[in-house]
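Q: Convert this sequence to structure tokens.
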Amino acid sequence: MSQKNKSDKPKLKFNKIFNIREMREHKVKTAIYFIIRTILVAIIVYAVINGNWENVMTCALSFVLLMIPSFIENKLQIDLPNVMEVIMIIFVFAANVLGELGAFYEKIPIWDTMLHTLNGFICAGVGFGLIDILNRNKRIKMNLSPLFVCLFSFCFSMTVGTVWEFFEFGMDMLFSKDMQKDTVIYTINSYLLSGDENKITTVKGITDTVVNGQSLGINGYLDIGLIDTMKDLIVNFIGAVVFNIAGFFYIKGRGKKSKFVENFIPQRK
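A:
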């Protein structure tokens, strides 16, 4: 082996690890990665100094999640569109750092709704891309209709959304978290309160909730998670439906380029 080839080996390994060519070609994506990772490092240092280990774990989880797009592209040989990858990066930051550490879920009422809607849309794109890759693979005998591809994409998105709600419920039950946010309601319809399984009692105009003889100080009754969970699944549903309407027409007009839809569909390298 020549001296030149030997000297090139470390360079090749460095380029493979950091994907220098891609970093040069996609400067916006690289800049966003750099900024978000720098912020995460700063938060970790600050949290360690103050002994806030929960924030450290949240940031560490964010680092792991930020590695998923690169893992998909390098190990699974699936190309994620740059727009989709940037949105995934920002989504992780918005959910973990701004949402949890910055308390945006409490400060901005629509924050959680916005993220779950986006999650439904993006996951539909992932499911759409995966089944479409198989459908177009000549080595696999599949000839699925556009409707079936969209059905798979929709089910994939809803499954991811449902599993996430399982995770939230598990964290609340096992670790006393409050991921399934409370909702104040003013009416209750209940068989249990009526004492008769054939009769519903309706309590309207609730102005106070008392627990163990002490008022919670809220104007209404506290629903602990059910409404939040159903709202999250409904907006996930909306996001998935919106994508698949666009995806259906994308497949039907395969010859015509639809840049918007292609920005959210993974492709095989």
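The chain has three domains: 14-95, 109-180+225-269, 183-223.
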